[in-house]
Each structure stands twice: as structure tokens, then as C-alpha cells.
Amino acid sequence: MRSRTVLAAAAAVLGAALAVPASAASGLPEPAQLQQVDGEETRSYSVPTRHGSLYLEVVHPTRGGKVLPAHGILTVSPYSVLGRNGDAADYVPRGYARMYADVVGTGNSGGCYDYGGTREKESAHDVVEWVAKQPWSRGRIGMTGGSYDGTTATGAAVTKPKGLATIVPEAAISRWYDYAYSGGMRYTYTNEPLGHQGPGAATDEGFDTPLAFDFGFAVPPPTDVTAPDWADRVADAMRVCDELQHTEKGYDLTPDYDAFWVERDYAREAPGLDLPVMVVHNWGDWNVKQDTALRLWQALPRGPRTKLYMGDRFSGHGTPGGDYRQAKLTWMDRWVGGVKNGVERTLPAVTSQTSTSAGAGRFLAGPAPKAAPVVLGSTAGLGLAPGAGKAAAGPTVPFSVVGSESLAMASLTPGVHGDAVVLVSAPLTRDVRMFGSPAVKVGLATGRTWTTLAPSVVDVDPAGSFPSVPVTRGWLDTRYAKGLAKAQPADGTGIRTTVVAKPSDWTFQKGHRIALVVQTASLEWTAPKPYDGIPSPTYALELGPATSLTLPLVGAGDVRTLFARS
Q1: pTM of the full structure
Q2: In CATH, what is the architecture of 4-366?
Q3: Quick check: 518 pLDDT over 50?
């Protein structure tokens, strides 16, 4: 396990799944306030921190062969095997020092890898403060990066290091629990079926962490053998750290949200942040799930220095298209470079790309959309209609320990399909936009004290034929319905609970129907949980007010006329 082969294998998997490719030069004009640069020089440093020496590589701007003092753009990353400072061309010609530090316990850094924990946050904090004091630094640092590289930016920010001017976390984790679990259910492959996320969907798995980090990126020793503190950092890398604890917590099938996860909950500390933040993600990110971006954005103080920038439902794990790259550089110029370009006023609070079943739609920008909850209750015919339905008895559906794929059914017509129940609305009379998280209320007549649920919300094309587009999904182990802190089984007299699905910006088009697929598991998404009591082969879905779908709709108008009458 302690070999470069392991590291290369981990890099192949994680690089595809988590790393965001470096961008090319922006082509934007250099701000007049920044220094004129005619070259660059790369230097490496060993930065002392509370938890070991971290390796730092800096691409310095130069003029006439001399390093220019500069404000800096910093990324703290475990992916040094994939390269460092790949986007220096975006920043160095604009007068910034582009900086890349290896996460504690990875790459050329010493110390113990900490899976997003205190050592990781505090060592990144120490790097920021060390850089701010160097003679080649002008004192302001912005942190950014994609996936893990953006997660460390948020982790450092909540420790409030002196010199940190802004963060732009891209496709990043804000609460580590949400990366491994959803509602107490462990993610596995998280692959998008039917090509609804593009060719990269096959690599968007969550099952490889924390194992691949602890035994891949964090095991090989530092390779910079000429560094004066190399031996000390090798000793750090060779000692036993927290691998077993990380594995135990990261793969627990009854994962209580305890002190381990609280330590890794950056969003919990975000309300106290007093610096500009642009939260960046895609609505279709099933690797680092899209709800982690909304969680961070909603926790941050409101004001002109807090922005949300979201890409479409189909782009997957990465950064938005459109004008995002230009917006990011303008943001960095304002808060790191000190250019008074007014981006805090000109960049809207929310920029979000809506989608339809036909693909990515328009970028819509402005204040946070005001979405109103619209309840679609279940009917006797397994329909969905505005308001609470009145039917009580529903179909009986077989339990499945593993579950089917999210859309593994011949048709999305109302009825029982294998181990799933499908409820379908009437056709829409007009386009309507959903912004936020749908809530699926489920009533089950069952003798079980708990079950798992994996509902999907689907946009059904006018013909009602397969395939249709899954808008979003949700997962819940019902023992965690009242909170994640501790598993709490029910009394065995039936289960009524609500599953909050992942958020999305989606436009349902006129003539389309909205389907709710209710099942207990989804084979390609989450690890199965065998029931620990007397097996029950079926459940009965309770209809009426016990089972419903609540959609956060923007400008829905008169809900009574939103759906065609049958």
C-alpha cells in the first residue's frame, strides 16, 4: 500500500472525480492598479505550521528578472501529483503571486492527513498568515480551487487567518458529512444514468473516500529530498495517523452526526465569517453534492459581499460556464488586488443557470429567487394534484434490500413498477421554474421501525415515454428523520416522514408532467441497509395528505390553473 503505484491509482480515480481542470488565460485586460509584469519565477518554501511543515510552491511575478512584491492567490490541495499552479497564467501577468500548498500529510508536506479536520484547517490558516508576513507579499491573499482545493479555502476561512481577503470555493464541500452521506445513507457510485451528466458521470463516485485519501495521497513520503526538513517530514508521513478512525467514520452504516462530523462542518461556522465569499457550484454535481453549496451560501451573512454562482443541471462536477471565469477574475481584482471595480454592486447576488429536459438553459441573475411552496398531494389514481389529496389507501409495494436503479422501469405511468411507486401529475399549462429543494412527504403502513427511502422527482415528456429526465433525488434512513445526531427508530405502527431532495434550478415546460418515484433504495447511488428486525416483504403507501410532493416554485401564479384538467 505504501507505494507510488497506490498514489498513481488514487490520482487516476480522484483526479477524474474530484479535480477541476486548470483554466487557461482569461484574456481580460490587466487592471491599471496592478504592477506591470514581464516574467515569472517559481520558488518553493517550507512553511512551519502547528501540525508540521507544509510545502508551498509560488509562481512569483517578475520585472527585469526581479521578484515583485505581490498580493497572492492561494490553493491548498492534496493533488500535487497532478501538478501545481496550472492556472498561473491567469493571475501572474495581472500582478499576483500564484501559490499552491500541499495539504498537511500529503505530497511534500509533513504532518498527519486529517480528512478535513482541525489539523487541516489550522495548518492552512498558518500558511495564510505566514505568506502575509513575507517580504515578497503585499499582505492580501485570496483562496480558491475546485473540489478538495476549494474545500480547504472554506476550512481555512472559518479559522479567520489574518491576511485572508476572500475565498471562492468551487464545487467544494462545506460539510463533510454531506459528502459521504445523505440523510444517514452512505453514497456509493452516485453515477448518473442515461447520460444525463455527460461522459464524466462514470467517474462521479463517492465510494473511494476516505480510503483513497488516507492510503493513497497521504501515504507516500515527501519527494523533495533536497529540502532541509525532508527527514522530519518523512517521519511525520511514516507514523500511524488517523486512517482507521477516518475509515470507521466514513463508512459507518448508522452514521450519527457526532463530534467527528461537527469538527468538519464549516457551514456551521460560516455565519461568523466577515469577508467576501463567492460560492460556486453546478446544480448537476452528484460528486460533491449541490446542496453543500446552498448550505454554505445560506449560512453566510447576507450583503453585497456574498454571491452565489451556479451552473446547469447537466454539467456535473466542475465550474459554471457563461461569464463565470471573467466574474471570478473581477472578484479577485476587487478583494485581493484592491481594484475598485464595483463588482460587489454589478455582480448580482445570485447567478444561476436553469435547465429543462432539453438541456442547459439560460443564466438568470438578480436577487435570490423568491420561491413559494406548492403542495401536490397524492390521489386515489396515483396522481399528483394541487392541495392535499383525500385518498387514504394506497398500493402495496415489495421491499427490496438493494433497490432498483432510479429509473429502472418500463414506463413512468402511474402505478407500481417493480419495487417503486410512480405518481404523476396532469400536464402543465405553462412553464414554471423550480428553485431550491423539493420535499417528499411519505406515509408507509408497515410494521418496520425504520426503512430507507430514495425518492426521485422526474420531468416526464409530453408523451410520458421512457427515458425522462430525473430532476433531483433524495435519500433518508428514517431513523434520522428527526435529526442526524442519533438514530431513532419508530414504534412499528407505520412510518410518516419527509425527505428533502437535493436542490435544483429547473424549468418544467408547458405540456410536461411531474412524476414522483417513491422507492426504498437506489442501487447505483447508496449502500443497501439490511433490516435488523423481522423482515417485512411489503409496504403499503398511504395516499392523501400522508404522501405528497412540495415544490419550491418561482412565479407559479394561480396554482389552480397550473395543471390541465383531466
Answers
A1: 0.91
A2: 3-Layer(aba) Sandwich (3.40)
A3: yes
